[in-house]
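Troubleshooting: if your tokenizer reports a length mismatch, compare your output against this known-good record of 389 residues.
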Amino acid sequence: MKERVPNQNELQELEQLVHNGIECSGFLVDLPANLDDSAAVVRAIRQGVDEIRQGAKLHRDYEDPADAAYALGSLWGDELCRAFKWEWVYLQAEVGFEGWAVVSPDRSYACFPHRFIFAKLADPGSDNSIALLFNTIEAGDVPPSSPRKYLTLGQVRIKSKEAPPQRDKVIRRETAVNEKPEGPVFVLFWATDHLSGEDYDATLVKFPIRPVWWHTTHKYEFPERIFFKANFATLQWTDFPVCNPQWPLMSRRMLDTLLSVGPIPHRAIPVIMLDRTVREPFDASGNPRPGVTDERFVAVQLTEHLDAFDWERSEYERSKFAPQLVGRLQKLILKEPADGFPALFRLSAMPGRLFVSAAAREALEKAGIRGVQFWTTDRIEHGRRRRRR
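Known-good structure output:
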């Protein structure tokens, strides 16, 4: 067996697919109240697969069994990683089979989650052992193995090399787009000149929910108050703070400036910045002490993504992990919507990037919004910074 670890772009794709799995499961069954309970999540996946095999109608995003297998398989594999400290790797067997797998820390065992779930969906008459395999691993009731043997658990027989099968064309939502070449848009990114050697303006005070990935449209339930420990010395110089979980935090003034250009489908979640130099920022009742907070900022989640990626003229490789997404990108060409690009948007084909329209950039610069930089999109190369223009 040969393995490689996923790169940053592939990890982002995995994160999105995990949340697709939560969404897909939620269309089928009632999810557990505590999503940190891996065993309960796995039981929900099993029930969801049973529902599909019995003919349950799926949301249009998961009608294709391959889409459902990628979503549910990613969530199932993620639960193995969370519960047993397994890891995602791209695994290649000597006989020629290769695919994404989760492996035990010493590589004694491996599972191919997408193949495993796809097989259960493709053969409704087979045993639904999704929860059983998880429980077997948890109990340690697995066949003997040794480090780096990669003994495959949950083996399935599928004729195709990849499972679920790769598709030549991605099912795309119909949108009103014209055939103009690349539109006047820019990648929005953080400026770091004001940090003066610091890594971040703010660091998240963790709270008890699953990790939040802002490049999905999943509607999270947040606690009433979200806190960041902030460097107030650098925070005063930016409207777009750099934070350790890479949330898209914006000053309300920055968001209002973008909204002045045009409507943006979004959620704005208030956050509270705490002065990191104050050792005890809370009083006895758990409320922030006077003078230690900055409440000018919100976290912005886009609730819709734009289907404007030109699959015919862009230069790219599809993600092996999620073929509906772009993996490696050499050149980006967009199809401009008939009513123009939104002020702020993400692409459904590569949701890890935030884009702004030329009009939005002009408005931000005119308003004196600080802490932002704009990357050109005429030639976006995977893993490299764009030159400023």
